[in-house]
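Section handout 9: paired folding examples.
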Amino acid sequence: MIKYQYFMKHLVFLLLLCLSVFSCKKEDNGPGNCPNGFTGQNCDEQVTPTNILIKSITVTNFPPTDNGAGWDLTSGPDVYITISQNGNVLYDNSSNFVQNASAGVTLNSQFVLPDVTGLYSISVFDHDDFDDDYMGGIIAQVYTSTNGFPSIVQLSCATCKVSLSLSVVYTF
């Protein structure tokens, strides 16, 4: 009988110990336990990325004509983009323009933004042999502290002549 009581006492202790261990709620959601790009007690604070790589830019919309005239004499526009910051051109793919482009044309860029929180001007041009035509542009901040790190960043505005879709990768 003594062995039985000894066994039961230890069994109860073991059951209580297991119950307390497995019923504990994990409270610490420190940086090591949060998804990539988030931190904080509840993993609800975005971490500012160290780099943003623009993999490609899709020109989702642009004016069909150049003030009523065709972009080119016999064909559609030969589209390229530039990316500027504070009036300085940081990226220019005019040597890789897309001939006879239509809305939805994708331009591969592979460009790392030097300032992840900065404002950038992304301009769309029609390449011509003598004088390129400005089709429109957007001034935007690619990263915001509440955007949730989308892999596709949509850029448009009510008064803009163009709209863009950026394929991006964030590095932390």
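Moving on to protein 2 of 2.
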Amino acid sequence: MKAQVIESDRLLLKPLGEEHISSAYVAWLNDPDVIRYLESGGDYSMDQLETYVRNVLAQDIYFWAIHLKESGKHIGNIKIDPVNLKHRFGEYGILLGEKNEWGKGYGKEASIRIIDYCFQEINLRKINLGVVLDNMAAFNLYKSIGFELEGIYRSHGFYNGKYCDIARMAIFNPELKI
């Protein structure tokens, strides 16, 4: 398994596994607020989630379940996939499914810890992401972490009944001279 257990101040990031298949996770994937700007989700079943998690495990990718240290509760997921080792970059994605945990800084905390891990342990030089520009909260979060805008795909994706611009952002490993 590529993903290792990683800790931050308030979080425990565990490799995604079959123990994470739950009705709560399915509920996240069917919640319009949670999946509003995601490529996946909607009309999910427990069987589909089971298949998805097994596919993740078979691919052996950098994919973590985000848990609160204090309670052990699974509140979301974060991944760096795909990873291109030749060019040394990876694609970032995050899902915070537990809406009652939104706004507490867990997404930022998990993101910073995973990015640091990828730069220090995997020796990536760059991490990329795409964000729907209508999702300004996410865009501003990524900017606060250190992601920089690299470009905008105009009317690139269909979200919430309309075509939206997608920002491509990246953060570079500060230890590597580019």
